[in-house]
Amino acid sequence: MRRGGPNLLRWVSITLLLAAVVLTFYELVAYSRLRSRLPEGLTIAGVPVGGLDRAGATERLLQVYSTQVELQYGDQLIHLTPASVGYRLDTETMLAAAELDRTADNFWSGFWDFLWNRPGDSASIPLRSEYSQGQLEATLRDIAARYDKPGDPIEPIPGSPNFAAGNPGSVLDLARASELVGRALNTSTDRRISLPVVETNPERPTLATLGRLLRQNIDVAGFSGLVDLYLMDMRTGEELQVAYLGNQDIPADPGVAFTAASTIKIGIMVAFYRYFDEPLDVEADRLMRQMITLSENDPADRLTQRISAFDGPIKVTDTLQKLGLESTFIAGYFKLGSDLMRVYRTPGNQRSDINTRPDIYNQTTAAEIGMLMADIYQCADGGGTLMAVFPGEITPSECRHMLDLLAENHIGVLIEAGVPEVTRVAHKHGWTESPLRWLSDVGTVYTPGGDYVLSVFLWNDPEMVWEPTSQLVAELSRAVYNYFNPPSSPG
What we know:
Blueprint: H1 4-35, E1 43-44, E2 47-48, H2 54-65, E3 69-73, E4 76-80, E5 88-89, H3 91-102, H4 107-115, E6 124-125, E7 129-130, H5 133-147, E8 155-156, E9 163-164, E10 169-172, H6 174-185, E11 192-194, E12 197-200, H7 207-221, E13 226-233, E14 239-245, E15 248-249, E16 258-259, H8 264-275, H9 282-293, H10 297-307, H11 312-322, E17 329-330, E18 362-364, H12 366-380, H13 385-389, H14 396-407, E19 424-431, E20 438-446, E21 452-459, H15 466-484
Parallel strand pairs: 1-6, 3-11
Antiparallel strand pairs: 1-2, 3-4, 5-7, 8-9, 10-12, 13-14, 13-21, 14-15, 16-18, 17-18, 19-20, 20-21
Helix pairs in contact: 5-6, 7-15, 8-10, 8-11, 8-12, 9-10, 10-11, 12-14
């Protein structure tokens, strides 16, 4: 018995050792197989791929990221296939990163953790993908073309100076939609989005539409003479010209020559500031205010004489012509009996189709005096023709002062009568007392819907009657104001 004990113990030890070797070999084979696959807990682009081989992981990734993206636009559900926008996963790069993570740990330390059933650290490989931004934007534009809802435009009410309110529309916010869809393409879970929609204001009529409405108002008023109207939108620089005689259009270019009368005082003011800097002396300031706000002629003559005692009117005209105003001039003083210093033949007064018998001492056109007002407005903001033609001679501060003086010219008729009482109107008017053959008003109108310059000249032969004629100018002014400030949408 004692002799057999050690042998038995030896065989038991050998058996246990062999069993341990076999078990270790078995576990080593199992671990090797496990290590040949992607680690448990590994995610690639947010997709769990632990325990899969490369082919299985690739298949799962493609299955997830080829799923359609659902786009909700209002009550429409649109399915976007990733391939339609050139979407492609960079599986090679992502799997290479996963392989690097798999082999980063020491084999034997990993095997030791495996034997003790200790899970390794989970890893996450970020998404690598690309798609065509151009194809995506083209797809979204196509969706917008099909499902955008244009609003109802603002429409003029025929024969009146009013406009009917439109209704807002809704359009796809393309920039934001592109961002959201791009994000949805690159997510493995939430692949449904609501496309962003923005509300659009009702479309405003074109200036051509306003022109037709203005002509209708002239027809309704029964005015058979000449209406020459110039309008500039100071935000966009767009212009409208209406030359309407006897209910028919006549050529607007070159402009029809009218007696400038008091509207030429705008030109005198501009020329004076060209030659004299602010601050003006006390007398000049007083004369300027009397000329513009009280429309007195003697102050206009005295200011012109200060520009040049020899040929002040010619110097004023020279300033205006340098600005490109070919048909605007003053050839003598306002005082009756003053010498005519020069005879001006202009594109406006050489027209053969219409002759308003303009004064040979001062003339302008609706468009040119309107352009001069626009130049002053732009100069006040630091730009425009005045500052380009006369650098250092006319300043924004001086232009703002000009507009302030023109805004003090309150008469309550013509352009002012067509706008709300609180509206700022920097303007100059002119007409003959008797007979009333022509009248004019030109001004810059400041409104919530945008500032604009409006110049209106009327002429007729036989003479006009003040009340219906001045009221027509007010109605035309009201139509223009309502164009820039249409009524709000219902509700």
